[in-house]
Fold this protein.
Amino acid sequence: MANRNFKKAETVIEYTGEKITDSEADRRANRYLFELNDKWTIDGSGRKNTARYINHSCQPNCEAELDENEKHIYIKAKRAINVGEELTYHYGKTHFDEYIKPKGCRCNKCSAKKL
């Protein structure tokens, strides 16, 4: 949940964690891996990375952006977000296909379709 209001394009939070090689990421294979490029990945499984608690949505109010040096991942507001709103971003096709699609997406947009 947003603890304050955010303007469109404002940074909400940085996705943090241990920077590991892609081969190490393949070995760990956890759900909190965020790819920086074809060599490096952030393992965001540590509890200090509160960005890991942001849920997936097919109609998100945030998006992940990589800095120009491919060292940091920032979660930014796609639109104005009000205090108390759930923060969401799309986890990406690979994560969606591996973890979400097999069980069925439960985001607000997809849940509304099922009603």
About this structure: Residues 11-102 form a domain with the Beta-clip-like fold (CATH 2.170.270.10). The first strand starts at residue 11 and ends at 15. The chain has a mean pLDDT of 93. The helical segments are 22-28, 93-100, 108-114.
